[in-house]
Amino acid sequence: MTEDHERIDEILAGYVLLSLSGEDAAEADRILAEHVPSCGRCRATLNELQAVSGDLALAREIQAGL
Length: 66
Hints:
By secondary structure, the chain is mainly α. It contains three helices and no strands. Helix 1 crosses helix 2 and helix 1 runs parallel beside helix 3. The longest helix is centred in the last third of the chain and has 26 residues. It is globular, with a radius of gyration of 14 Å.
């Protein structure tokens, strides 16, 4: 099956933000199990999204402390 990387990017972003439910959550599970392990592009995208998410969480903590 040919994967639509634009759609995968959207699903991975939703996964990292913990904002998926229903069919999207099931699709994320499938993508993470079947596609991401064998696709360097998607692994890199997932790593970048997780890093940005972590940076945003840290920035929020810093801002809340001010």
